[in-house]
Fold this protein.
Amino acid sequence: MISSLRIENFALIDEVDIQFTSGFTVITGETGSGKSILLNALSLILGERANFSIIGDRKDKSVVEAEIEVAEFNLESFFTENELDYFEKCIVRREISKQGRSRAFINDTPVQLSTLRALTSQLVHIHSQYNTLELKDLSFQLNVLDILSGNKAKVDEFRSIYIKFEKDSRRLKELKEKLSASSSMADYNEFQLAELNELRLDVVDYDKIQNELNSAENIDDIKLSYDELKEGLNGNQGAIEILQALIASLAKSAQIDEGIKELHDRVESSLIELIDVASEAESRLGEIDIDPVKLLELSEQMNYYNKAIHKHNSRNQTELIDYWNQLKSTSVDDDELQKEVNLLENDLIARKENLIERADLLHENRLSSIPKIEKELKNALQSLKLVDTELVFRLTKLESLNETGISKLEIFFSPNAGIEPVPVHRAASGGELSRVMLALQSLISAKTKLRTIFFDEIDTGVSGDVAQKVGATLTKMGEGMQVIAITHLPQVAAKGGQHLKVTKSVIDGKTKSFVTQLSLEDRIEETARLMSGDQINAAALENAKALMS
């Protein structure tokens, strides 16, 4: 319930702090006094769009703050999920500035407007005379049936499962599209993979083949170099012969001088190395032999490799191997994707069967509950002086599922006995719709968790004994929840456990609105004013007392 509502610099209100009680609260005041300001302020708390033109002239911003008791609503998880502090008395605040900025807070933590709306919509409901349009909405009608039949929790569970099913169905569609696109490339990829398989990239070293081909193309120069190397070292007057003579010449001196010996040994080591080089050059010269057939094979192999390098925009064998592995993994990925599609498709088939079973059960539960609900509604309407009025719930089965199941409900309305019911949006008058909605709300309030409901002139178009019945209905609703009603009817005002009056005065040339909680004596006088106007007489006061007894 709303414990308090603080409004600052909002329209004609400078500042007001209203303390609400539980049960049934009435709000009265002359036309134009500012009662609708309370409704507009509360709408801000419920996350409605801000009208920045209603900001007062005392400050640059308007503030509306409500303290709401939330202990009965099991909302701890909501606060945890949104990283908000949880208290059994929750403070929600909305600030709007002349600069066009709007800010929302829950327990002093800034939140998105959607978060504020998600919370307060579970705690407070505003029903104005224009909300009777809801009754003409088929989804609202079905929701009413589900609440009154006790199916609301099952419908919420069904909706959650259905939304997940739809999400996964979209996922399956995306996977199939991806698989289809991939499959259309499969033949081409397989062809490319076969081409690269023939190159045996994991076995053949194409850099080595290229070196072999380079050597074959320059065979004469290579032979000449080997021959020159061999002759230069091992031929007549070659380097080896010269060094051998030098070593022999130094041998005697090396025995008597350490410096000569060291140089002698170094020359001797060089000689050994050069003898080995000469031998190696002679051996390699003898091995050089060009096989024309092999050379042709290597050349063709290299041509295939170079074409592949160019075709796949690769710079070397390593990059070509990476692309080759990618093609192989694509084939594997397609297999895995097909498995995923098959699994999800089979899963969705089973889940849809489960949804259909649940929807059929929901439909049967709805259908079986209708006679009792129609009877309860008829009694409620009779208590509001709609004696011969009937609401007929016509439930049909749809061909396909939606998030509420497989049912379509349309409420039909008959105002008088013997009149064939027609769809409610084509039949009921404004006053009748208001009482129909009040009857529905009175039944709904007994089926839902305790929350605050704010009625804005729900009693429009009624008077006399009907007004008495409306007041009695609101009082009865107030026994199980907080009910706040703006009213012009003394019969309704007299039933309130708390009575607030909105007044308007001109102060320093400016019109201001005020909200006052009335004492018992003031309540009697205000109820009498509603009965007889500003000229209150003794008879009106006595009648007011009688209404309040």
User: Anything to note?
Assistant: DSSP finds 16 helices and 15 strands in the chain. The CA atoms of residues 10 and 56 lie 5 Å apart. The first strand starts at residue 2 and ends at 10.
